[in-house]
Write a structure and sequence with these properties.
289 residues, 15% helix, 8-stranded antiparallel β-barrel, alpha+beta, globular
């Protein structure tokens, strides 16, 4: 009987591991800003009370960027032609070198939710406009592959702000999005990676890691499980590049972008339920033995 229990235990371990590591699915979420900024009513309930938005599918974004393209020297001299190996380093949002402060915030922020939010109405609103989300990055790096840029690294930091804050230095950093892949699709740039480095502060009494919440818990809850991640995909329109104006081997490019960000979490499936059932069977066999 001991051999049977041991075998079942091994199966359970494998199945539970698969249930959390095997599948990743697009995930709905809500945002808990810890305060009711208005727009709530009995007929317009929020996902988890008056301090939250409704259930969201993704964030709509707008931002401005500055990029430096460096010639790899494939042709010996910088001749204006992009060639394989040329590198790009970009900054954007509130980390962009051209960002001058709150006067530029309307061009560098999460400008809506999907489903859409309308000030003080709509399924996704909790006074959206009295508070907001913004982001910034300064180290998005990639290389030209002959057709477009492949992106391999970068950190996008997400911030909360509201109308009580007078400067960017008062914004609350919620988390970082670590880019580990992505590239040009022909008419847009797609970036992917994992959420990390949750802020160690609060938003109106809510821990920064608990501001974004999925159906099974906050995103920091997922992150705190060893080996688990919350994943993201960001898609934005980009300027089509076939050539650049190199000066002494480098070219500077500015751009304005619109796009979206969605999130995915490890999805516990019915395999986990099966695993719990097998654990119960193992326990029953142990009692009989």
């Amino acid at each position: 009987m001991k051999k049977v229990v041991t075998k079942i235990t091994k199966v359970v371990t494998a199945l539970v591991a698969l249930s959390f590591a095997g599948t990743v699915a697009a995930d709905q979420f809500y945002i808990n800003v810890g305060d009711d900024f208005g727009g709530n009513s009995v007929n317009n309930p929020k996902a988890a009370g008056a301090n939250t938005t409704g259930w969201l599918d993704q964030l709509s974004i707008a931002y401005q960027s500055s990029s430096t393209v460096t010639d790899a020297g494939t042709f010996g001299v910088a001749d204006g032609r992009l060639s394989a190996g040329d590198s790009i380093l970009s900054s954007g949002g509130i980390s962009n070198g051209g960002f001058t402060g709150l006067a530029d915030i309307s061009n560098n922020l999460v400008n809506n939710f999907e489903p859409a939010s309308t000030a003080f109405s709509g399924p996704s609103n909790n006074g959206f406009g009295a508070w907001g989300l913004t982001f910034g990055f300064s180290d998005l790096a990639g290389t030209w592959n002959g057709f477009g840029f492949d992106y391999t690294s970068g950190t996008i930091s997400m911030y909360y702000y509201d109308n009580s804050m007078a400067s960017v230095s008062e914004f609350t950093r919620l988390f970082d999005l670590e880019v580990n892949g992505g590239g040009d699709t022909g008419n847009s740039t797609v970036l992917s990676g994992a959420m990390t480095n949750f802020g160690g502060t609060t938003v109106n009494g809510v821990n920064a890691g608990d501001v974004f919440v999925s159906k099974l818990g906050s995103y920091e809850d997922y992150f705190s499980v060893p080996g688990q991640n919350v994943y993201f995909n960001a898609s934005q329109n980009t300027r089509s590049l076939n050539s650049v104006n190199y000066v002494n081997g480098t070219a500077n490019i500015d751009g304005s972008h619109n796009g979206s960000i969605n999130f995915s979490v490890p999805e516990p499936t019915s395999i986990a339920i099966l695993g719990l059932g097998l654990l119960g069977l193992a326990a029953a066999r142990r009692r009989k033995s």
